[in-house]
From TrEMBL:
Name of this protein: PF12686 family protein
Organism, scientific name: Streptococcus macacae NCTC 11558
InterPro entries xrefs: DUF3800 (IPR024524)
Domain of life where this protein originates: Bacteria
Length: 227
């Protein structure tokens, strides 16, 4: 059984951000408690409370070694794998495909989850964002199970609070690095340094597709046309 800890960045249709991302880290259910303990040890090493969230927006020069170690921990841990779907929102044309932005949002979750369903049964965990989250969970359950054509199944989809789950927080960190690079930001030396480390460890740039078979750090950049 795989647990998939999902997060998203700038998924709203009119938030004036060009790039939308949905990503997740997978971890075998039997390994999750070990991962929690090891991340807790890293926090303790740097004098950081176990209750302090790992977040991309908190990356700074004063804590760069801490965040670099978290990135290295992800890449060195054979139980953790990452996939992200990247969408250029300037090219969205929902009218052409007779869909709403919400419909499109759920399709992207399908593209995220589908790859993991070729490996094992999956539990999907998503971050609680707002009061509509429970509606999203119920609709996502229905859509993913209808579209799923693998022999594996989605056992459960549920909301969790990201500040209570360190693997979810690690997802936020990796999505943040991919988002920062794809938006062309150069506002922080610490963040640029962390993006460079992620790219180096992935042996791939953060703005183009990896091979579908790439397991550790998988990028799927949607090819869209707004015509």
């Amino acid at each position: 059984m795989l647990n998939l800890y999902c997060d998203e960045s700038c998924h709203l249709e009119n938030d004036k951000e060009k790039v939308m991302l949905i990503g997740g880290i997978s971890c075998p259910d039997y390994a999750r408690n070990i991962v929690y303990k090891e991340i807790k040890k890293i926090k303790k090493k740097y004098g950081i409370s176990s209750h302090t969230e790992i977040k991309w927006r908190k990356v700074s020069e004063s804590k760069i070694e801490y965040y670099e170690e978290l990135v290295d921990y992800f890449f060195d841990n054979e139980n953790l794998n990452f996939r992200v779907v990247i969408i250029d929102k300037d090219k969205l044309n929902h009218q052409k495909y007779n869909q709403t932005h919400d419909d499109f949002y759920y399709k992207q979750y399908f593209y995220l989850v589908r790859k993991f369903l070729f490996e094992d049964d999956v539990n999907v965990f998503i971050d609680i964002k707002d009061t509509n989250s429970i509606f999203k969970v119920n609709k996502l359950k229905k859509i993913l199970n209808v579209w799923n054509q693998t022999e594996k199944s989605i056992k459960n989809i549920q909301q969790i609070r990201s500040h209570e789950n360190s693997i979810m927080q690690l997802t936020d960190l990796l999505i943040g690095a991919v988002a920062y690079t794809n938006r062309g930001f150069i506002t922080s030396n610490a963040r640029i340094k962390l993006c460079d480390l992620v790219s180096k460890r992935a042996a791939h740039d953060l703005i183009s597709n990896t091979n579908y078979s790439t397991h550790k750090f998988n990028i799927f950049k949607m090819e869209l046309s707004n015509e």
